[in-house]
Amino acid sequence: MTPARPLNGSTSRRRLPTQHRSRERVERILDVAADLITEHGVADLSTRAIATRADVPVASLYQYFADKEEIVLALVERDIGEMDEQVAQAVTALETLSVRTVVEATMRAFVAVYHHRPAFGVIWWHDRTNAAVMRFCRQHNKQVAKYLFEFATNAGLLRPDTDPIVAELGVEVGDRVFQVAFEQNLSGDKHVIDEGVELVVAYLERYATPAGIAGIPPGSRRVEE
């Protein structure tokens, strides 16, 4: 049994490239924007600076993005898509399922992407001025909570009477832990992350079944219909 991966629909109305060359150009624009954000922050980002470093005409950039805000949103969407993939892979690979192993796998997967995509940390933890990004990330947190809650409940890790808000709070607390860990250093504070994992585990284990605490080995897992 594997957790369903949240499906992230774009909230923007930008033109989506279909040709391989166009997709490569868009990826180059996003990569350059990420580098500039990591180096100088979101406030100093401009479409002209992106176009210059990406070596594309400004007019070409506007074929795909209306302004820099859409570029920032596209970066966030791309990075969060990668996070979803990493979380699904990490949880699927678990030898034993428990509240602790699922929380650890999920949070460590997010950390791995934060290290790989530092621009996301700058956007989400240092410059929360893009309203579309705020809406997208908040909705994504709810999606992550929903899918992980359903997975944990179906696997027998959480008591059947557990309120879904418990999962939402767990995800929001984890998000705040990451902000504290990464807001001063994009490498992240390992001690804060470790303590944050323990914090979320301790909270969610209050609603765990005995099996959710002891752990369910592969041979004992429920089979999905």
| CATH class value of the largest domain | Mainly Alpha
Number of helices: 10
From the helix content, strand content and strand pairing, which structural class follows?
Answer: mainly alpha
What is the helix content?
55-70%
Q: Within the CATH hierarchy, at the fold level, what is the topology of the largest domain?
A: Tetracycline Repressor, domain 2
Per CATH, the architecture of the largest domain is: Orthogonal Bundle
Question: What is the secondary structure topology, with strand pairs?
Answer:
Blueprint: H1 20-40, H2 47-54, H3 58-64, H4 68-92, H5 99-116, H6 118-126, H7 131-154, H8 165-182, H9 190-205, H10 210-214
Helix pairs in contact: 1-2, 1-4, 1-6, 4-5, 4-6, 4-7, 5-6, 5-9, 7-8, 8-9
Describe this protein's structure.
With 225 residues, the chain is an all-alpha fold. The protein has 2 domains: 17-65, Homeodomain-like (Arc Repressor Mutant, subunit A, Orthogonal Bundle); 69-217, Tetracycline Repressor, domain 2. Helices cover 67% and strands 0% of the residues. α4 packs antiparallel against α5, α4 (68-92) crosses α6 (118-126) and α8 packs antiparallel against α9. The chain is elongated. It starts with 19 loop residues before the first helix and ends in an 11-residue tail after the last helix. Residues 7-13 have low confidence and may be disordered.
